[in-house]
From TrEMBL:
PANTHER family: RING-H2 FINGER PROTEIN ATL57-LIKE, RING-TYPE DOMAIN-CONTAINING PROTEIN. Keywords: Membrane, Transmembrane, Transmembrane helix. Residues 68-109 form the RING-type domain. It comes from the Eukaryota. The chain crosses the membrane at residues 20-38. This is RING-type domain-containing protein. It holds the Pfam family zf-RING_2. SMART domains: RING (SM00184).
């Protein structure tokens, strides 16, 4: 009985404990990465907000801009739009996607909205998040811990 207990303690220290520590370290790493992504997103959107303003599309036959130059669809009343510093108008989601994934400049006049470095930095953090090797490893460890748990239950 004592032997079984000490064996259990030894096996706990040498097999379960390192797994738990690894799990905790990975969990901290993953949350730190998500925090960085959220912060980078927030910072980048703040820069876009500084150089543009949001608006809701209203029918205005006198307006020079009747359609969004990114998706080439006409502005429909009530749609969310964004006006860049250069006075060019786009759908909000179209121009945000453009500035986040393609270029740091206005699609029409190519004036700079955010700096190239900010775009590069934003995309770097985003891509880091996409290669989810760490997350996969975390899932594998979680699985093995769960599996180990059910085995011990069988004893
Ligand atoms: Zn559009
Ligand atoms: Zn422009």
């Amino acid at each position: 009985m004592v032997l079984t207990l000490s064996k259990m303690v030894v096996s706990f220290c040498f097999t379960v404990l390192p797994e738990i520590i690894r799990l905790i370290v990975l969990a901290i790493f993953v949350s730190w990465k998500s925090y960085r992504l959220v912060r980078s997103n927030y910072k980048y959107m703040a820069m876009i907000n500084k150089k543009s303003s949001k608006f809701i599309c209203r029918k205005n036959p006198d307006s020079e801009f009747q359609e969004c130059a990114i998706c080439l669809s006409e502005f429909v009343e009530g749609e969310k739009g964004r006006e860049l510093e250069c006075k060019h108008l786009f759908h909000r989601h179209c121009v945000e996607k453009w500035l986040q994934e393609y270029k740091a400049t206005c699609p029409l006049c190519r004036c700079s909205i955010v700096s190239e470095e900010s775009l590069a930095e934003y995309r770097r953090v985003k891509n880091e998040q996409n290669d989810s090797i760490i997350e996969k490893e975390l899932a594998l460890i979680l699985l093995s811990v769960l599996h180990g748990g059910s085995c011990r239950h069988g004893f």
